[in-house]
Amino acid sequence: MTSKDYSTINFIVCVDGSASSKAALRFACLKAKNHGGTVNMLYVVEPVDFQSISSVAEAMLEEQIQEGKKILDHLANEMEDNLAIRPTGILLPGKVGEEIIKQTNQMAGNPAMLVLGVIQDSHNVGKLVAWVCAQIGNSIKLPVMLVPGNLSDDEMLALA
């Protein structure tokens, strides 16, 4: 029987460039830095539905991929500059929910956590958060942390 190293926690953060996903990323980076961990940013490019005009769909998909790369690079640089930890970017084409499940399943058995940002000033937690919560224990076998997008830097530091 082999023993696993549980000293490093792997955080998977879904990012889209929004303020709430940036807050989730910042919080995960603080946790990883304080407790010895790694951070993976997951950016999913959803398929474009232009079946009759494939060249338009291909151009739109390429544009979304380039935008995703820019967002991942910008966020990684910002976290490295401000927190001295550089998260790894993962850009995948597909449906957001399916890609989250794939990434969390790859981490299953290792200490890992899925981190999602919650939109501030909203009575609706969002479709993705509601969907993820419904998957916990079934398709997603990792703890899920929800980070309010309006946490202050001081609150994040105290909690991390």
Give me a quick take on this structure:
Helix content is 47%, strand content 21%.
Note the main attributes of this structure:
alpha/beta; Rossmann fold; 160 residues; 5-stranded parallel beta sheet
Q: What do you see in this structure?
A:
The protein has 160 residues and is an alpha/beta fold. The chain has a single domain (9-159), classed as HUPs (Rossmann fold), CATH 3.40.50.620. It is built from five helices and five strands, in the order E-H-E-H-E-H-E-H-E-H. Strands 3-2-1-4-5 form a five-stranded parallel β-sheet, with helices on both faces. Strand 1 (9-14), helix 1 and strand 2 form a beta-alpha-beta unit.
pLDDT averaged residue by residue: 84
Summing up helix and strand content along with how strands pair, one would put the structural category as: alpha/beta
Query: Gyration radius, to the nearest Å?
Result: 16 Å
| Number of helical stretches of at least 4 residues | 5
Order of helices and strands: EHEHEHEHEH
| Low-pLDDT segments, ≥5 res | none
Shape label: globular
Mind telling me the CATH superfamily name? Answer: HUPs
- Biggest sheet, spatial arrangement of strands: 3-2-1-4-5
- Kindly report how far apart the N and C termini lie: 33 Å
CATH architecture: 3-Layer(aba) Sandwich
Helix content: 40-55%
The strand count comes to: 5
Taking the sheet with the most strands, its summary is: 5 strands, parallel
